[in-house]
Design a protein that fits this description.
This protein has about 325 residues and is of the alpha+beta class. It folds into 2 domains: about 270 residues, Jelly Rolls (Sandwich), CATH 2.60.120.430; about 50 residues. The N terminus is likely disordered. GO terms for molecular function: unfolded protein binding. One of its GO terms (biological process) is NADH dehydrogenase complex assembly. This is NADH:ubiquinone oxidoreductase intermediate-associated protein 30 domain-containing protein. It comes from Kwoniella newhampshirensis.
Length: about 325
């Protein structure tokens, strides 16, 4: 099981777009070739029409036509994350990823305003990831599955620059803590998935919406999960995201081969307006209570020992008068 949800799209006002625009020239491949592997990844611009057909386009395609088609809802612009996941070179291990670095300032998604990240995704229709049934004696049962599991990775500390055309093998990057959340996107559905009345939950004209709450992101270091309480563990700080990446990894031999994922958007998920207002009210009430306590303490201190003092004779007279009413 993976800590994600496949749901109908959220209301538009709950989204803070991160991509698009995808700024394709700013993405860089970080594959297992940095460790001597053979996996490779790409991120290319594509268009998806109302029938679900995906067409590769140039990053500097006719902007006027593109804008007109998008406005008329003839097409949806997106990114195709694709490549080959190899596990033989490194003996079962392998990964391929595309990385986007923020700079000079990090991405700011404070928990007080955002609950996580959503991705609108679609299986690559050019690939068939269905698993063929086979008998127990068939060798096919021993082969890894075709890739359907992907990972969104966040890094919250400054990262090193990634050259656009690194030498092979590329120099390894300095190891640092990352935060990862995985999700599965199955084989491309039939053309009926574009029908809004389709009964299959999550399918819309542009596919699934994957919801990743902040708690879905687990800390990892050098491919190993770091549990809370371990010396290296640090909670996810969403105020400073320096790097975001899409990854397809083997899971130590669980999947391999050609992979493809269409991403039409990546968004920050805003808190609902009423939830945000409720937090503001609670915060305001809490501050008001502390302020009243502080002011009361100051006033009581200023009044301390400053009342009218009675002489001993006056106090005695008051006691006698009080005794008359007993």
């Amino acid at each position: 099981m993976f800590p994600y949800e496949l749901t109908p799209p959220l209301p538009p006002h709950h989204h803070q777009p991160l991509f698009p625009p995808f700024h394709f020239s700013h993405w860089r491949a970080v594959d297992d070739r940095v460790r001597g592997g053979s996996s490779v990844s790409h991120l290319d611009p594509v268009e998806i029409d109302v029938s679900g057909r995906v067409t590769e386009v140039s990053a500097d395609d006719d902007d006027e036509r593109k804008e007109r088609d998008v406005k008329e809802k003839k097409t949806i612009r997106g990114a195709r994350f694709w490549g080959t996941l190899d596990i033989k070179t490194l003996g079962g291990a392998g990964f391929a990823s595309q990385v986007y670095r923020y700079g000079p300032y990090p991405l700011h998604l404070p928990r007080t305003e955002y609950t996580g990240i959503s991705l609108s995704v679609l299986p690559d229709p050019s690939l068939d990831t269905t698993t063929k049934s086979s008998s127990p004696d068939d060798d096919e049962t021993m082969k890894p599955a075709k890739p359907t599991r992907y990972t969104l990775v966040l890094k919250t500390s400054p990262t090193s620059n990634i050259p656009k055309h690194p030498r092979v093998p590329a120099p390894p990057r300095a190891a640092q803590l990352s935060y990862e959340a995985s999700f599965v996107v199955g084989s491309p559905p039939s053309s009926s998935h574009c029908d809004p009345s389709s009964s299959e939950k999550g399918y819309q004209a542009k596919g699934h919406e994957v919801i990743l709450g902040w708690n879905a992101f687990k800390a990892f270091y050098r491919g190993r999960e770091v549990k809370e309480g371990e010396a290296r563990w640090v909670p996810l700080d969403t105020n400073s995201v320096y790097e975001i990446s899409l990854m397809c990894r083997s899971g130590f031999g669980e999947q391999e081969g050609e992979f493809g994922l269409i991403v039409t958007s990546i968004d920050g998920i805003r808190k609902a307006d009423n939830e945000t207002e409720k937090e503001k009210v609670v915060s305001s009430n809490w501050l008001s209570w502390w302020w009243s306590v502080f002011v009361g303490w100051i006033c009581s201190w200023l009044r301390w020992d400053r009342g009218i003092r009675l002489t001993d004779e006056e106090e005695g007279d008051m006691d006698e008068k009080a005794g008359l009413f007993i």
